Amino acid sequence: MNDFWNLFDVTTHDGKHHWSFNFNGKKIAIFSKENNSVTEPLLHSQLESIRNNFIYDKSKNANSSDLIVRQLYTKNFKEFDLNTLPKNASKELLANIKGLNYFSYLQCDEGHFPNDYGGPMFLLPGLVITSYISKTYIQEPFKTLIAQYMRNQVNSDGGWGLHIEGHSTMFGTVLQYVSLRLLGEDKDAPLMQNARKWILENGGATGIPSWGKFYLSVLGVYEWEGCNSVFPEIWLLPKWLPIHPWRYWCHARMVYLPMAYCYGLKVKGEETTLVKEIRNEIYTEEYNKINWSSARNSCCEKDVFRKSTSLMKLMNKLTSFYEKIRIPFLRKKARDYILSYIQAEDIHTNYINIGPVNQMINSICIWHKYGRESDFFQKHIDRWQDYLWLAEDGLKMQGYNGSHLWDVVFCMQAITEGGMEKYFPEMVKKGYHFMDKHQIKNNVDEKIRFFRHQSKGGWPFSTVFHGWPITDCSAEGLKTTLMIEETDALLDTEKTITLKRLYDPINTILSFQNKDGGWASYENTRAPKWMELLNPSEIFGEIMIDYSYVECTSASIQGLSKFYNTEKNYRTTEISTAIKNGIDFIYSQQREDGSWYGCWGVCFTYAIWFGIDALVATKDLDFIDKDKSVANINKACSFLVSKQNIDGGWGESYQSCVTMEYVQHESSQIINTAWALMALIQADFQDISVIQKGIDFLISKQEPNGDWPQEGISGVFNKNCMETYTSYRNVFPIWAISRYIAKYQKQ
Length: 747
Ligand code: LAN
Known about the structure:
The protein is mainly α.
């Protein structure tokens, strides 16, 4: 551990985390709402020293361990007083108490667990480019810490991947290269020379995927003519057309929305000397000689995940033809509409926006329309910090504004399943309070005009301020509330999430169900699957519509069935029909070999845990075909057992997500092991030795203070991009052991 980081202080406020640190006795406030700037200019030598304290060796593990926040939060760490436990306490109970005692220190006063939610490498460049064109200069020491993160995450071949563990791609490499240049890096520094070599040897920046072409065009180091059209008028098409964007997956919709604004106006920053220099550094030919229209469809082989389809090519031809004859009146109408949409999203999300990509592109639009000094733009800048996170590898941008609610609901379930609330009642109180505060209380304004699903009663992934409800977060919220209320961790007067407030999530969850019986992520599926043929991104799979997912469906079924078993007087018939159809969807997604493919975690072990939990939770309901469920559960167990390693653990590589076939990790992984165990224990798997070996593996990996080490990356989106879930290394081993204790060691 690094003493330097002891100089940092963290305070949390309003569900957000603020950082400040002392340097040589000077208090330097960073990311603080009250004071968004550095109080004293830093000397070159001080910056050098900061940089030296953030040297990270990626070759051991690309995933940093979130040491800074953990070191800060455990400053006054004390071991749990084991004398308060029964003399014959099992080793599993002791491990769990140790694990929870450590984890309790990571819970902040608001009840959540601030942690690193990084992973993707294409987010921070969005911030650097936006700040550059809008002349929102990034102050020190942020600038140094951002550059340091990029430096730390370079691959050994000189390039950067789509995410921290990924192989080098044109997208990752050009974006980091350009960002580092904007942050002041010399083009002749060895890091930059290597990166440039990578870029030029792989065909140059004309081969950057379309999202990269977009960012480079806005910066002015690529020409808009070299981009396929993102024509704003698409928003004026009749809504019944399957290609109308209101039908897209909300993340795709909310990213292509501001992109269309920028494309329509060919938004571009000032042509500075640096911009002109970069133009001469990243291409294999002279900038002025590049054939932009042929560059439109070029994409570096190392980046391609989904090849452009014939339908997409046809569409591109039509839209580039339209671009030549575009009708000014329609363009203006579309642009005005898009702007009103962006501003509605700003209001709905308190300027946080649905994700890190639309936050930056919306900022560009708002800057372009209203200017740098405008209140609207300043409100955006205020929110940039919500996406930033500092760990021992530097300052990074997260995939979301945090995973607050998600961590809380899992932790609460991990505690209550094993009866651990009697040892950690305060943790449960704080967690429950967080869930209470962050349940979404109202629908958004102009819900129909802006195609928003109902929100009331749902739960978000992060905070109520973000406010987009998610199917499984809502269901986990409902289930967790009921689980906590069944324990005696709360006095009756503390049970503030009243039954009536649970009717709202029931309504919302029921309304989220798709025709195929499954649940998608944020909304219903709104367009046919063939829309995926029009996925323009090259690098992501399944982004066009919101599909039904095993994970979201399982969580929704579990939430509904928990409620169904508790309260029989509310929409009982609809709930049972929804559960039945949901289970049919789960059956339909199970592969011949008994497994399920995971879309949001790495990978099969994650989805099998969800699949089995849904089948077990419902198999005894009188409208479910018990024999079928049991047979399917057994098949899934056999699959899991066939993947267990000799050391008792399970380990899956993120390549499982990409290839859609189970790929063993080179070593057993704590998180995969915990998921596999939770599934097997829930399934009542008969060969206890399989389970015992897994539990022993988890315990053997636990560190003396109760933490577990950070291993490989464990989250994913759109099949190809990975995401770090730092709390998982604590929550899941604890939960697996809790489940074990509840099953085999009931006191
Ligand atoms: C997330 C994070 C949470 C995740 C779960 C709740 C775990 C999942 O069960 C449903 C899908 C959801 C909500 C999800 C969807 C995609 C997100 C929002 C992310 C993985 C976090 C980051 C990612 C987002 C799309 C990143 C930006 C990239 C784009 C392609 C726009």
